[in-house]
Write a structure and sequence with these properties.
Blueprint (H helix, E strand, L loop, with lengths): L1 H24 L2 H18 L9 H23 L10 H10 L18 H5 L2 H13 L2 H12 L4 H8 L3 H21 L4
Helix pairs in contact: 1-2, 1-3, 2-3, 4-9, 6-9, 7-9
Length: about 190
Amino acid sequence: MPTDEAQRWLEEHGSALYSFALLHLRDPDRAEDAVQETLLAALQALQRFAGNASIRTWLLGILKHKIVDEFRRQAREAPVSEPDGRNWETLEATRIEAEFAENGRWHHALTDWGDPEQVASSHELWSLVEQCLESLSPRMARLFMLRDVWEADTTVVCEELAMTPTNVWTSLHRARLAMRRCLERSGLG
């Protein structure tokens, strides 16, 4: 019975799916909706599931597509400026320019991040990343996740966020700097 299958998936994989959706969507209600849409899509596609991957991997793949669909919807509906009328990209550019001296070098020395493999596998790191993503604008957070976490191709990112390649690289640079500052303030590095 299909509903029994969905219930079993929810019991076995629901927590992982919800955590993944919440990390990317940063909204509990939207994360729940994405998980529900994932389970519904999985039930509809169950006959086409070849079993080449685990059920969780298959469900996470479907969830990733649901999240990207949500990003597309948000990009179409996103306001160009902040509610108070300020343009967040201009504000972020001004803040980033303050990090550099006139000769183009950093005002402060770069920090030692330790063993990258050990740090990347840390659960604490992902908790810090999630907190730092919340400090970014929604568009910058989506850009960072698409490009640097999911390693989406630039053409895909341009299409998803309705941005030019130049704007993607400029905004991505700013997002990376902001994430770096936030992670350093949080004690990493």
